[in-house]
């Protein structure tokens, strides 16, 4: 939670409106590479550190964005900011594993 707050301050998106989804369905790949990708890679690195431990809900969006580390576009940067705003909106969501009870796995499937 603290890392998300630090990240928001670092990239100046703290005062933007909240969002309830980590990535738009309409995310598309546009070829207009940005020159400076250092900040983009640093933010992706922080998110990759946070994601596997407590934020599995952003894994798909983070996977798509991290594949563009060297060739990100302005659209990718916008989607990254939206992902960070989603994390801010849901910063109190955590992966909770209770050690007192045995794990319960529930699986739904639809087969014809």
TrEMBL record:
Name assigned to this protein: Uncharacterized protein
Organism: Nephila pilipes
């Amino acid at each position: 939670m603290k890392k998300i707050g630090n990240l928001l301050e670092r990239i100046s998106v703290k005062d933007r409106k909240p969002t309830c989804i980590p990535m738009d369905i309409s995310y598309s790949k546009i070829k207009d590479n940005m020159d400076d990708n250092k900040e983009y890679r640093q933010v992706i690195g922080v998110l990759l550190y946070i994601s596997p431990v407590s934020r599995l809900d952003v894994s798909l969006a983070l996977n798509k964005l991290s594949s563009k580390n060297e060739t990100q576009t302005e659209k990718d940067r916008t989607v990254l900011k939206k992902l960070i705003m989603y994390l801010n909106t849901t910063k109190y969501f955590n992966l909770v594993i209770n050690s007192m009870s045995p794990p319960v796995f529930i699986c739904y499937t639809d087969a014809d």
